[in-house]
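User: I'm new to structure prediction. If I give you an amino acid sequence, what do you actually give back? Let's try with this one:
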Amino acid sequence: MYKKIPLLIVMILGLQACVYTPSQKSLSVLEITGKIPASCNLLGQVFGESHIPYLAVGVEVAKSRAKMQAAKLGATHIIWEEISYSMPLAVGRAYRCD
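Assistant: Good question. You get back a string of structure tokens that encode the predicted 3D arrangement of the chain. For your 98 residues, that looks like this:
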């Protein structure tokens, strides 16, 4: 019985990557790391959350939801301010870059 538990955990963790597919709208917003280009204008702060704690897929859902908000504002790019895995949360600043 106990020998099967590690296998079950590996299977669950392996399947988590297959659970979520981001929307086209969220894929249109690109992530910026580092310095903000001068051609970018701040549109506002965006938030996303998920109810899947401690798994990477939960953070991906939260980031996708924040990026969908950014797309609704007309953003082309986003810079993450906070990412939390325990209570999946993504907070970022949405920018429109020329």
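You can read the tokens as a compact description of the fold. Here is one thing that stands out. The longest helix spans residues 56-72.
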